Structure formats: C-alpha cells, structure tokens
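Lab notebook, bench 4. Still working through the backlog of constructs that have no structural model yet. Next entry is a single chain of 330 residues. Request: give me the structure tokens for it.
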Amino acid sequence: MGSRALFFFFALLSLSAVLCIAESNEEDPGLVMNFYSDSCPQAEEIVREQVKLLYKRHKNTAFSWLRNIFHDCAVQSCDASLLLDSTRRSLSEKEMDRSFGMRNFRYIEEIKEALERECPGVVSCSDILVLSAREGVVRLGGPFIPLKTGRRDGRRSRAEILEEYLPDHNESMSTVLEKFSAMGIDTPGVVALLGAHSVGRTHCVKLVHRLYPEVDPALNPDHVPHMLKKCPDAIPDPKAVQYVRNDRGTPMIFDNNYYRNILDNKGLMMVDHQLATDKRTKPYVKKMAKSQDYFFKEFTRAFTILSENNPLTGDKGEIRQQCNVANKLH
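Model written out:
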C-alpha cells in the first residue's frame, strides 16, 4: 500500500472514530435542563401540581419527599432503587433499619400515574423522586432549585450496600463528612443538607439512647422534659406513633431555626449535637443561624450535587412502568 493510500486509510479511521464519539455524545447528553421539553413538555409542571395537591391533603408528604432524595441518591446512584419492593431474590432498601419511618411511597406512584396519562413511558421514577423532593422544599417555604433531568431507573435494590454509603445519625462527624465528600459535597454543603432537620419529626426509637438510662448532659435541660413526655419508654414500640418534632418553633417551615436550636443544645440526634460542636462544622452552623439566605444558597448547591450523584442516563437503566417494580424483560 502506497504512502498516499496509507494516509487516506488512517484519515478515514480517525474520521470514523470522531463520528462514533459524536454519535455517542448525541445519544447520551447526560443530565440536562428541560430534558423533557420535547418528549413531555408538561412533565415538571405535572409533578409540581401533583405535589401541591398531595401536600394539601397530607402535609407530612413533603418531609417524605425530602427524605427520599437523600436515601436514594446517597446510596451509589440516583436511580430510584429506593422505591423497588422486595422480591424473592432481593430485599428492598425500604425494609432496611436505616429506612425506618419512611413512608408515603404510594404518592410517588400517584405522580407517576399522572405523568403516564400525559406521556406514557417517558418520565423516569428517578426524575419524579428528585423533582418531587424539590417541590416539597418549595411547599415548606424553602428555595426553588433549578434541576437537570434525564435520569433513568435502575433495576435492582442496593440494600446490601446501603449502610456502606448512607450516613447515619449516630456515626462520628468524621464518618459523616467522609461519606458526603465521596459524593462531592463539602463541609458547608453537609451542614446545609442537615438543615432539612428543620422540618419533620424524629421517632423516639432514634433518640431514646440520649434519654435512658441517663439523660445526656449535653442536652438543654429546658428541652428534656418535653422529650421525656413525648418518649416515655426506654424501649419504644417501633410501630407506635411516638416522636418529637425536630423544631417546636416552626415545625412545618423550612428555615434556619434548626441552627439556632442546635447551638442551644436542642438537637435531637447525635449528628445534630455534633454539627453544632465539631470545630469543622460549627462555624458554618453559626453562619447559617445568622443568615437564612446563606443557608438557602448552600442548601441549593449541595442539593443539586446530591441530585446528580452518578445517575443512569442514555441507554443505561430503563423507564419503569411502575416505580415499585422493575419492568419485565421479554
């Protein structure tokens, strides 16, 4: 083969490689703003309206949606694996101890059904989970967060690795910071995300170790009688509705009151107490206690990073027909 022929041969190979890469990039744009602008233009508005309706019926749903994104996206990928029911071969993440108290998954299905009526087989459960969390924050008075979409749904539960990835309320602050750092979330981002404890409630199961057999001396003594009244048993019945509101002042408002509470030693869980006392996190706690704008800014940034943690896009995963079960393979 002559030198000119060789030149054209390698030129054609290079061109083919470039075209393949371009085609691949075109097929999988990853997460983008307004991913459904052509395939389902009303998708985000439908999620918004459904969240409004469900919140009007059951205000506690907003806490559930907010918790969903943390429990799903923190465990290796934002792929709605959290929503999958148990099968004969795998245990659901919903049934793990770390998922204790999580509920209202049926409302995700209601949103999915509304989207299926408008755009069958188009919008993923992963995107519904993330968008409903965003709208839940808005319903509670928090910031509106522009989010990218285009996630696809995983086919398997990640229950066996849940504890490896999901930060726990009783772990050391070093461990909590390390687990969030692995997702790209820095210290002020961690402090801001834990500000979600501004709303909702904590089941007595999660905090009785600070009350029995001895009251944790780090707790504000003025707050202890209320906690003991709400949690009168050293071994509470996990099925009983026994809980303490995270913030007695503004329990249904997403605000920076949480930071003032934990600086006043009124944090319910150990992670709340550590957040206010650890030298790495305390400066940000104090800053967020003073400025709700700063809290919202950091929360928006960290929430966005969390929502984009290792998603399935392009031809990976699937668009589930029902959010609690993977599609049947034919």
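Notes after review: The beta strands are 201-203, 243-245. The first helix runs from residue 3 to 27. Flag for follow-up if needed.
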